[in-house]
Specification:
Number of helices: 24
Oligomer: single chain
Radius of gyration: 29 Å
CATH topology of the largest domain: Beta Polymerase, domain 2
Largest sheet: 7 strands, mixed
Strand content: 5-15%
CATH class of the largest domain: Alpha Beta
CATH superfamily of the largest domain: Beta Polymerase, domain 2
């Protein structure tokens, strides 16, 4: 396969049908696209599938073709955790007007869950129910964009823009391939920026030299596409990233925008390879000078990912630690080793908020407490009971030594998280009060004693617990 004609022969329509069936939409999703194309055409508009979906369909065809399957076997397309598809349609005309025409059209016969239009930006979002599954479609009027200042959101002009104009303002050539959904040329490929060629060559390439100056977040997206698709950022694009970083271009965008991009990378299957690349390209240190991602971080990321890929483990722990969150643990690892003042600066730069800052400070403080525990088993369990479970879990993800004492201590911690933390007395505070013990602090003390005795195996039933209390605390 060498270019555009081969993809037309290979039938884009067949590939889309297979993907729609994989997601549970079936033929009705294709019918919906055709009907949207008809509504668009009747209004004098044009409509084109564009962005990630056409790109991934082309890669899907390449993965399925015996001649190219080996070359593209590492490319991940339609393999994310999302159960639903999200399609982008570029509209030659008014996206907002088309959205309402779609809503009002009686021939569509698909339930519309919601419609949100943004006149200022020339966009609209719709969600349909197709075969009982939500299908989101984002409409955007064809546009040109002007960046008044580096890193700022662009000024949008939708007047008289054609598909070529719209394509020229996009991030990477591989994301510029479009499929027409107009009736006269349904699913015909439109490729004005060598998108097909760069997909075939597995190359991530920007469309113009000021791409990263205009929008520095494209650096994160370049890494995301490179690693997910198994492509390579081309030499010229790498130089443009370096030039932009040398100009401290990331200082021009808000911490919230950067954090949003980092969280998208954390959602990927192997987030460690994305952060390793960010570090190698000096993007992490450009966000905040003390940020690094080395071999140790990579190992911990893998441990976190492996743990949360065992749903039973994570779900079990959520029963006693409802706010346990994989992103928080990844973030704790990224910032681990920073001083308190550096942590505050990093959190402030990324605009993560005081809640994250306080959570991370508590986790790091708890790690020091755990490292300081040199007690017998029951006393250790008593101390661990006063430490947040997510801090204990984060401790286990760290490499805390390999001698016999360290390994034994680690086994104790694992046993605590797997079993001991779930041991509870049969009795509760109300039961103890009903026995004539009314003092609040004493109730708490008794319950803790009972728990430790249960851990030691000395109390095995509710009857044992009642006898223990009567014998020690109730005077005849």
């Amino acid at each position: 396969m060498t270019g555009l004609a081969e993809f037309e022969k290979n039938s884009i329509e067949q590939a889309i049908t297979e993907i729609f069936y994989r997601y549970g939409y079936g033929i009705p999703a294709q019918d919906l696209l055709k009907k949207i194309g008809v509504v668009s055409e009747n209004a004098g508009f044009g409509a084109f599938l564009i962005g990630g979906f056409p790109r991934d369909i082309i890669i899907y065809i390449l993965k399925s073709n015996p001649e190219t399957s080996d070359k593209f076997k590492s490319s991940e397309v339609f393999e994310s955790n999302s159960r639903f598809l999200d399609l982008d349609i570029a509209v030659k005309g008014s996206a907002e007007k088309l959205a309402f025409l779609i809503k009002e059209n009686k021939n569509l016969k698909f339930k519309l869950n919601y419609l949100k239009a943004h006149k200022k930006f020339g966009t609209a979002s719709l969600e349909f129910l197709v075969n009982g599954m939500p299908l989101k479609i984002d409409l955007a009027s064809l546009r040109t964009e002007v960046y008044k200042k580096p890193g700022m959101l662009p000024e949008v002009n939708t007047a008289k823009a054609g598909l070529k104009d719209d394509i020229s303002r996009r991030d990477f050539t591989i994301n510029t391939v479009a499929f027409s959904i107009n009736r006269k040329d349904f699913l015909k490929i439109k490729d004005y920026s060598s998108g097909i060629r760069d997909i075939l060559n597995k190359k991530i390439s920007v469309l113009h030299d000021l791409s990263f100056i205009d929008d520095p977040t494209r650096m994160f997206r370049a890494v995301r596409f490179e690693k997910r698709l198994g492509f390579k950022i081309d030499g010229k694009t790498l130089k443009l990233i370096k030039t932009a970083l040398d100009k401290n271009i990331l200082d021009n965008i808000s911490g919230k925008r950067i954090t949003a991009e980092l969280y998208l990378l954390l959602k990927e299957k192997k987030p460690e390879i994305y952060f390793e690349r960010l570090d190698k390209l000096n993007i992490l240190s450009s966000i905040y000078g003390k940020l690094k991602f080395g071999k140790k971080n990579k190992i911990v990321f893998k441990k976190i990912s492996a743990y949360f890929n065992e749903p039973d483990k994570a779900e079990k722990l959520r029963r006693i630690c409802k706010d346990i969150d994989i992103n928080m643990l990844y973030t704790a690892e990224i910032f681990y080793g920073l001083s308190n003042s550096e942590l505050r600066e990093a959190v402030k730069r990324l605009n993560m908020g005081q809640k994250i800052e306080k959570t991370l400070e508590a986790v790091y403080s708890d790690i020091k407490k755990i490292n300081g525990l040199k007690l017998n088993n029951t006393e250790i369990y008593d101390k661990l009971n006063k430490i947040d479970a997510k801090s204990i879990l984060f401790y286990l993800f760290q490499d805390c030594g390999r001698n016999a004492a360290d390994l034994n201590f680690r086994k104790i911690i694992v046993r605590y998280l797997d079993k001991i933390i779930f041991i509870k007395p049969y009795l509760n505070g109300h039961d103890i009060k009903s026995m004539g013990i009314c003092e609040g602090p004493l109730c708490g003390k008794i319950l803790n004693e009972i728990k430790l005795l249960k851990i030691e195996g000395r109390l095995k039933s509710k009857k044992d617990e009642l006898e223990y209390i009567k014998k020690k605390y109730i005077k005849n």
